[in-house]
Write a structure and sequence with these properties.
- The chain has about 60 residues and is mainly α.
- The longest helix has 17 residues.
- The chain is flat and about 35 Å long.
């Protein structure tokens, strides 16, 4: 997962996401099965150029 940027002071949303992620990880039997929850509640939306670059980089 590429690094994300915290949107302002959305610490509460970030730690709720982190808690949900750790719950999923602790219940997963295989690392390969792990799918983190969406980060849209706390991350800065990627700009069009950076989104384009992510698509190019794969």
């Amino acid at each position: 997962m590429p690094p994300k940027t915290l949107d302002g002071l959305k610490y509460n949303e970030f730690f709720q996401w982190l808690s949900a992620t750790m719950t999923i990880v602790s219940k997963s039997s295989k690392v390969e099965d792990f799918q983190p929850p969406p980060t849209v509640s706390w991350e800065v939306a990627p700009s069009l150029p950076s989104l384009t670059q992510r698509l190019i980089d794969g």
